[in-house]
Amino acid sequence: MSEVRVRFAPSPTGALHVGSARTALFNWLFARNQGGKFVLRIEDTDLARSTQESVEGILEGMRWLGLDWDEGPGADAGEYGPYFQSQRLELYQKYIDLLLEQDKAYLCYCTADELDAMRKEQMAKGEAPKYNRKCACLSADDREKFAAEGRTAVVRFRSTDEGRTKVADLIRGDVYFDNEVLDDFVIRKSDGMPTYNFAVVIDDALMRITHVIRGEDHLSNTPRQIQVYEALGFAAPEFAHIPMILGPDKTKLSKRHGATSVTQYREDGFLPEAIMNYLALLGWSYNATQNIFSRDELVEKFSLAKCTKNPAVFDIKKLEWMNGVYLRELSAAELTQRAVPLLIAAGLIDKAEAEAQEERIKTIMAALQTRLHSLVDVVDSSRYFFTDDFTYDEKAVKKFLGRPYAVKLFGLLLTGLEAVESWSQESIEAVFKSVQQELDEKLGNVIQPVRVAVTGGTVSPGMYEVLELLDKELSLKRLRKGLEMAQQQAKQE
RNA sequence: GCCCCCAUCGUCUAGUGGCCUAGGACAUCGCCCUCUCACGGCGAAGACAGGGGUUCGACUCCCCUUGGGGGUACCA
User: Fold this and answer.
1) What whole-number distance in Å separates Cα of residue A316 and Cα of residue A338?
2) What does the DSSP 8-state code read for residue A218?
3) ipTM value for the complex
4) In angstroms, how far is B59 C1' from A174 CA?
5) Which nucleotide's C1' sits nearest to the alpha carbon of A47?
6) A166: closest CA among A227, A218, A213?
């Protein structure tokens, strides 16, 4: 039994899209599960739209997700390279020449305008648009004449009208296409580049790909490709067409649905393990109950047989929930390690402070952890720990600092806390409890005004914990400010 | 237009003829925990697109309709 070889073959015309990432993931999972090889090939035959920047973005996205490739750009496994289609032109030409020699392909001199007109006419007559084979039987003289006119030729594959082509799909079963509906498609463009449907066959064959796992949008192209395999005497690989990923409106996921690039999700604070887990569940499931899978578990449990056929709507809410799950699974040290760069970037701390306060930051992160939906949330939710430069929620100030007992509350609290010798949650709590008794208010009524004074808002970790982390000096400073604000509110009454 | 694929709660899905009074997860709602918000716990509501067959028996098999998606390029 030969080794499993799969590939991910993006065209570098933009960022790594989540749909592409999911395709890459399924290929990677299958390869790792089967102990096979995962090949990365860049399909850059569209000169006008391919960019180096996109190539780099895609590679970076793959690395970030942890989808390592055994062969491809940057991996020194040159056995079946090069791995950029633009560097494989002579290979394609060799097979095009072969087809031409055997009369399995022919030169076509029709112009774009002529083809347009032809299609319009066919549509008008209610026929399926299909190349009319005008150039299918050109003589050498005809060709010379066209060339003399300055026309450039494309190469077309000579397809048959007889019979049907079977695509044996591992996910969908046998799918049949009448050969009659396939036309003589172009395999070499006038700029000399091969078309997708041709290059993909040559590369998959030469790279010994055993399983082609790709999006369902390629299913309809597969019979054309199979015909090329047959014409060249290549054995066709196994095919597995996985369902599309759709936006909330059930149309193909695109930019207008929000973030679609892996890089964007990274910037928005999503963890790669969460994205991987979520993407794995789009079109695949293991059983009725399990949702959370580690990378190793995914590798161990993945199978094509458990892939679904129906398209899946991308649900950002579930991704956010899952991201929270992974965020909570992080140890305080891991969370801190990932968060510190963001805190530095936001200007809340500098590098030296990050090192000096490592333990404190770790504790702060642990306190914030269950409240995070995304990694970037750490900046906003921890701001008041690092700077006085935060905004007070106006409504909250009015509501809680305007309470009739507020001035008295801050006065008592300040007196009590100033006297505290060893600053700890326990000693802070003791003061709060005695003030609560004195005021005869519910604990919540005591704490909420303090929370507003200390954090600027109504949401934070436990109050005693926050005060302890703030340290005595800073806590008292914020409480004095709270007292002032309470007095101001009282005046305005 | 033609060809192909798909069809279970709002969403992702389990389900391979009787185990289904259709299970889980996200989202929603309620309760509990509680100093707020989260987390966590408990609970509620919520689906087999429609119509024909086949069968003793259909969510499961077949056909049609409807709906959605994809392809039909010198894009990939």
Assistant:
1) 22
2) G
3) 0.95
4) 23
5) B75
6) A227
